[in-house]
Amino acid sequence: MNAGIIGLGRCIPNRVVTNADLEKMMDTSDEWIRTRTGIEERRIASDEHNSSHLAFEAAKNAIANAGISADQIGLILVATVTPDRPFPSIACMIQDQLGAHNAAAMDLSAACAGFMYGLVTAKQFIESNTYDYVLVVGVEKLSKITNWEDRNTAVLFGDGACAAVMGKVSENRGILSFELGADGSGGKHLFQNDAGHIEMNGREVFKFAVRQMGESALNVIEKAGYNKEDVDFLIPHQANIRIMESARQRLGLPEEKMSTAIKKYGNTSSASIGNALIEELEAGKIHDGDLLVLVGFGGGLTWGAVAMRWGK
Ligand code: ACO
């Protein structure tokens, strides 16, 4: 028996900020942003909508999509680096709003690998028969910790939330293998500084990400007992198209077999992988029985990957 995703939902803020909008705010250009990052536009949440609001909407949609009721959920895990406040956790806030009265609830912090950490943690509780259903949310309001005067980082990020209800799925579906990792010595390359802003050594993060994404993807394929030729679709963390392309090329996949949701949403950190998965499902690019690889990396430094056979 495997644990797998049985319902998905997301919440994408309405406000679109294009590269042309950013050109008016700082010394940058649409051409630079597109060619260096692959980003064309991103969504920014309104002042009155905090991370908990985005998380609640995404979670509500995922629970409806799974066809369960909120009180059947045993655990809520919210991956975020932009909680409304350190406590109470977003997980506790949405537990109450959803009416998930039987659920334990906690936030987890693994930056852009947070959704992967959430999925893998949920898998343990489901496969040990501890809980029937675990709700995993990835949510960020990165706009509130972005230094809008720093063009090196301000052009990269967006806001949003995704949610997955995890439960038992039939044999040969769900999460087949995983890898999680961390290297705290790299924390200095990507962190929230004392002013509360994202600070990043882009080149160091780039080098780490190129190496780690490819390696982790290949590792989970092997652990699942498959070859890279068996992979149907790659969902990499949507951080930079050039990093994503290098992972795709290491797997030998054609362009159309990798999500490039980054174009429309930028880097939404914990929300990026789940949001990209939903984007590609809605576009009809992922089918029942497909072998998927989801892989992410983030501040910490952290990384995580799963090989997953899509379907219930
Ligand atoms: N517009 C125009 N020019 C810019 C901009 C901008 N927005 N940003 C930087 N530049 C300039 C730099 O100042 C530099 O100019 P110089 O040569 O005169 O000094 C030039 O562009 C090149 O800068 P580089 O930093 O070398 O550009 P690079 O090709 O490395 O791309 C980038 C920068 C996009 C940040 C890249 O390094 C990258 O994607 N790194 C990884 C980022 C990432 O994945 N972060 C994950 C964070 S998610 C999380 O965990 C929260």
UniProtKB/TrEMBL annotation:
Top class in the EC scheme: transferase
Source domain of life: Bacteria
Gene3D superfamilies: 3.40.47.10
Enzyme nomenclature, EC number: 2.3.1.180
Pathway participation: Lipid metabolism; fatty acid biosynthesis
Catalytic-site annotation from UniProt: 112, 237, 267
Cytoplasm listed as a keyword: yes
Region of interest: ACP-binding: 238-242
Compartments it resides in: Cytoplasm
Domain Beta-ketoacyl-[acyl-carrier-protein] synthase III C-terminal: 221-310
Gene Ontology terms: biological process: fatty acid biosynthetic process
One of the Pfam families matching this protein, by short name: ACP_syn_III
MF annotations from Gene Ontology: 3-oxoacyl-[acyl-carrier-protein] synthase activity; beta-ketoacyl-acyl-carrier-protein synthase III activity
Entry keywords, A to Z: Acyltransferase, Cytoplasm, Fatty acid biosynthesis, Fatty acid metabolism, Lipid biosynthesis, Lipid metabolism, Multifunctional enzyme, Transferase
Function description: Catalyzes the condensation reaction of fatty acid synthesis by the addition to an acyl acceptor of two carbons from malonyl-ACP. Catalyzes the first condensation reaction which initiates fatty acid synthesis and may therefore play a role in governing the total rate of fatty acid production. Possesses both acetoacetyl-ACP synthase and acetyl transacylase activities. Its substrate specificity determines the biosynthesis of branched-chain and/or straight-chain of fatty acids.
Database matches in PANTHER family: 3-OXOACYL-[ACYL-CARRIER-PROTEIN] SYNTHASE, BETA-KETOACYL-[ACYL-CARRIER-PROTEIN] SYNTHASE III, CHLOROPLASTIC
Domain text: The last Arg residue of the ACP-binding site is essential for the weak association between ACP/AcpP and FabH.
Oligomer and partners: Homodimer.
Assigned protein family: Belongs to the thiolase-like superfamily. FabH family.
This protein's name: Beta-ketoacyl-[acyl-carrier-protein] synthase III
Organism, scientific name: Viridibacillus arvi
